[in-house]
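Possible regression after last week's pipeline update?

I re-ran a chain I had predicted before the update to compare outputs. Posting the input and the new output here so someone can diff against the archived version. Not blocking, just want to make sure nothing changed silently.
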Amino acid sequence: MDARAGLLGALTLVTAAFAWRWYASLREDPSVRRPDGVELGIGALTDFIDTLGIGSFAPTTALLKLFKRAPDENIPGILNIGHTIPTFLEAVIFISIVEIEMKTLILMIAAAVIGAWFGAGIVAGWPRRKIQLGMAAALFAAAVFFFMKNVGLFPPGGEALGLSGAKLGIAVVGNLVLGALMTLGIGAYAPSMILVSVLGMSPITAFPIMMGSCAFLMPVASLRFIKEKRYTPGAALGLTLGGAPAVLVAAFIVKSLPMTALRWLVMLVVLYTAVMMLRSAKAERRD
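New output (post-update):
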């Protein structure tokens, strides 16, 4: 068995274990409701554009907030749990088709998982106002990344398919930090693209690194959120059931769209939501 096949096998086992644990927790909770059309639509839209390179966490946060689908403090858990299975599908696709040196990929994924385990343990215990402030910061950061991408400020990258020495060490530490931030709702797409490009790797390698890291770390982080009951089951189910088929449609049928205009639109929605999140945090402080 080669390293790529072993990595995909391990990813499948981790995702299956998560799915079984989540299913068991849902069976034990009599209050769980079925997702509605809005939640299914949010999952379909955000995982569709995630597969095409927009990212899912910031737009999902914005839509959950705008449609009032869950308490603010539950949104990080919803993001991680609900997007786990769609992200698994994305990871399998990109790890299978994109050429990358496996040592670099495996070490960066492992670092992200470690970061997520510690990050989820911290975020799951935060009070509502602290999560609101953290998500507002995450949304503002996402808007900055969208702006940078649209005006051509992203580093151009190189042609390397792997790293070694000091550059590999920087990549591993950087991905550990990104793994921890993912549990708060900071999407990995733009930061991963910048990280690999600055280190001289081909920008296309960001896709298996980002998707592989997320697909491994999200089940790990999700178990912490499930244990603490810091998520809304109906909304998370909507993301999963709507998002999984949308990934396949985006990857194998649509494949590409004019993304610049869509990024501007998402950036405006994300900025509006960040301001609303800050207003909610201010109201929480008064209360």
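Follow-up from reviewer: compared with the archived run. The chain has twelve helices and no strands. Marking as no regression found.
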